[in-house]
Structure formats: structure tokens, C-alpha cells
Specification:
Number of strands: 13
Strand content: 15-25%
Helix content: 25-40%
Structural class: alpha/beta
Number of helices: 14
Number of domains: 2
Order of helices and strands: EHEHEEEHHEHEEEHHHEHHEHEHEHH
CATH topology of the largest domain: Glycerate kinase, domain 2
Radius of gyration: 22 Å
Length: about 375
């Protein structure tokens, strides 16, 4: 009996993780019609597609109206599986919600992300995973804290305006109104960056420019976040500005860790634990994963690398499918026992590849399965 763990990420622009898993399963079954057990676990790394991956596995999708990064109302969804909620901050506070000419790192706010956290707590979640990729914000998580009842005040006792720039006027943090439900909730931050909050590797310097901050704006934001970190340290008696990951999502990682006692881990590790991937790999013959592009980013905590690491620990060989494979990434993954397989079966325009991704992935899985069954000594094909 062959046992195949099928754990791909989404193929961005063409297939959700669930659709990718289904295509791989179809290909494997067409080549191995008998003696095959599949364990499908659509995966994600905490970024875009994480909620969809959990919904595909049976979680409930809950939609709420929240404030977008510039305050406009928007609809954002989170996944609820029993008492576990999975949130993508990009759904409420993401760069994709803005037109390029609207990018404004000084004014954008994480308030909507805080509203999603409150909604998940109100829906009965006792463990909340917050994926914090794709943000439009650089407010240190101040907006999210305000949505949860924290008051950020200037020297006159007035509330600050939205955005990271306003934190330059911060004088006092009032925690009296912080949502009491959060005290009994475990919050995990799914992040794949280890940047501190401040300085040349901090949130403003590294990520601010891609969110519309000029050189002057970067300096202004770093100074404002320094003020936020100073007042936070005096309020809480603990300084977390240098904690790895504090600078993730424009400093949202800092706020969640400092005020909500959140723990930060690579997103793929959190998702793997929640989905039960280590247990699924036990006794498996092969692990099949994949994503749209296997490149330098793959090696920095993305799904394929994370799945492959867990498969290697379980002694299971890994096959990784992708629409595009960079040679350098392929070379880096090979020592970890990963064989990368492009899904295109010939030259074709990118639009055609995206449109036909499901068929291409299915055929690539079938070809790979047949190859794995070849007896190179000349006997009939056999199970491996």
C-alpha cells in the first residue's frame, strides 16, 4: 500500500491549496489506481490563502465588516475550527486593499485587524493564529490595540489619530479598556521575518518604502515607533523592541507580543501543527507538495521548505511541484531530499499556464507517479 501525503500551498493566481491538493490526488490515482492511500492536507504559511486552506479542510468561514487600512469599510473573513481561529491581517489591513496611489505608511492603520481578533474572541475562539504578511501598515499595531479597547493618548489626554505617524505624539497608554476576553486566549503570530521593530533592519526602514514611505517618511516613522516602544516599555515594564519578528507587518508583531503575550513562530510550522502534518507523515511512502514558484522566498520559511523539513524528519521523500523553479532554489532544496518537478509540459504563454494549472498539475503528478513505479532492473512496475 502506497501512502501519499499531499500537502501543497496555493498556486498563486491559479489554484487554491485545496484545488492543488485535489489535482495532485487525481494525478496520483490515475497512475496508481490500486493500493493507494492519500492524506490530503492543503497547506499555507500564514499569509494569503491560509484562511482558505482551513476552510477547505472544513473550518467555518466567518465574515465581518471592518475598517480597511485607510478607514474605509471592508469585508474580511477568518476561519473558525472549533475553538481555533485563523486570521489573515491582510484581509483587513493589507496592501492589496489599496490602489498603488493610495499607499500611505504614515496614515494606514491595523484597526481592522484588531476588529477581526475581537470578532474571533467573540465567536468562542480560545486560540487565535494571526498571519501577518502583506500589510499596508506601519503603525506598530497601534490601531489593532485601539480596536481591542486600548487608549493611546497625547499629553493632553486626547486620542491620537490613525497611523504610525501619529505615534510621535504618544504620551500615555491606557489599558483599562482592553478586552477582558483576551486574557484567557492564546494568540500566535505566524510570521516568516525576524526583523526587530526599529533601526536599519526595522519595520520602517525595510518595509516602509514598499508601503509608500519616502526616505523622510521612513525616518519619521522610525522615530514615531521609537516613541511607541519607549512608552510601551514604561507602561509594561518590559521592552520587546528588539525581539525577532517585532518589526513584522509594520510592527504588528511588536504590539501582539507586548500587549497580548503572543508568541511568534514561522507560519508554516503553526499551520502544520494545526493540520496534523507530522502525524500524517508517520509511515508515509511519499510527500507531495508544491506552490506557484519555487524561488529564493521558498527557502525563507515558505510552505514547500517547511513541509520538506518535516517530511525529512519523518524519513519521507518529498516531491515538490511548481509552475516556475529557480535553479538556485532547486539546488538548495536538493540536499534536504526534495525533488522539484515543473508542471508545464511544454513551452506556453503564462496566461495559458495559469488558466490550465489544474490539468498541468494533475498530469505532472501522474507522470511522476509512473516514474516512481518503474523497476529500473527491467521487471514490471512496482510500488516503492
Amino acid at each position: 500500500m502506497r501512502v501519499a501525503v499531499v500537502a501543497p500551498d496555493k498556486f498563486k493566481g491559479s489554484l487554491s491549496a485545496g484545488e492543488a491538493a485535489a489535482a495532485i490526488e487525481r494525478g496520483l490515482r490515475s497512475a496508481w489506481p490500486d493500493g493507494l492511500e492519500t492524506r490530503a492536507l492543503p497547506m499555507a504559511d500564514g499569509g494569503e490563502g491560509t484562511v482558505d486552506a482551513f476552510v477547505a479542510a472544513g473550518a467555518q468561514r466567518i465574515v465581518r465588516a471592518v475598517r480597511g487600512p485607510l478607514g474605509r469599510p471592508t469585508q474580511a473573513a477568518f476561519a473558525l475550527d472549533g475553538t481555533v481561529a485563523v486570521i489573515e491581517m491582510s484581509a483587513a489591513s493589507g496592501l492589496a486593499l489599496l490602489a498603488p496611489n493610495e499607499y500611505d505608511a504614515l496614515r494606514s492603520t491595523t484597526y481592522g485587524t484588531g476588529e477581526l481578533i475581537a470578532a474571533a474572541a467573540g465567536a468562542g475562539a480560545r486560540r487565535i493564529v494571526v498571519g501577518i504578511g502583506g500589510s499596508a501598515t506601519n503603525d506598530g499595531g497601534a490601531g489593532a490595540l485601539e480596536a481591542l479597547g486600548v487608549r493611546l493618548l497625547d499629553e493632553h489626554g486626547s486620542s491620537l489619530g490613525p497611523g504610525g505617524g501619529a505615534l510621535a505624539r504618544l504620551a500615555q497608554i491606557d489599558l483599562a479598556g482592553l478586552d477582558a476576553h483576551l486574557r484567557d486566549i492564546t494568540i500566535e503570530v505566524a510570521a516568516d521575518v525576524d526583523n526587530p521593530l526599529l533601526g536599519p533592519r526595522g519595520a520602517s526602514a525595510v518595509f516602509g518604502p514598499q508601503k509608500g514611505a519616502s526616505a523622510e517618511g521612513v525616518a519619521q516613522l522610525d522615530a514615531a515607533l521609537t516613541r511607541f516602544a519607549d512608552v510601551t516599555a514604561s507602561t509594561l515594564g518590559e521592552d520587546l523592541r528588539d525581539r525577532p519578528g517585532a518589526g513584522a507587518a509594520g510592527g504588528l508583531g511588536f504590539a501582539l507580543c507586548a500587549f497580548l503575550n503572543a508568541q511568534s513562530r514561522p507560519g508554516v510550522d503553526i499551520v502544520a501543527d494545526l493540520r496534523g502534518l507530522p502525524a500524517a507523515l508517520a509511515g508515509a511512502t511519499w510527500c507531495f507538495t508544491g506552490e506557484g514558484s519555487i524561488d529564493a522566498q521558498t527557502l525563507r520559511g515558505k510552505t514547500v521548505a517547511g513541509v520538506a523539513r518535516l517530511a525529512r524528519a519523518a524519513g519521507v521523500p518529498t516531491i515538490a511541484f511548481a509552475g516556475r523553479i529557480e535553479p538556485e532554489a532547486e539546488s538548495e532544496l536538493a540536499p534536504a531530499g526534495v525533488v522539484t518537478v515543473p508542471i508545464a509540459d511544454g513551452p506556453m504563454p503564462a496566461e495559458q499556464a495559469l488558466y490550465g494549472a489544474a490539468s498541468l498539475l494533475e498530469r505532472a503528478a501522474a507522470r511522476t507517479a509512473r516514474l516512481l513505479s518503474v523497476d529500473w532492473c527491467g521487471a514490471s512496475p512496482k510500488a516503492r
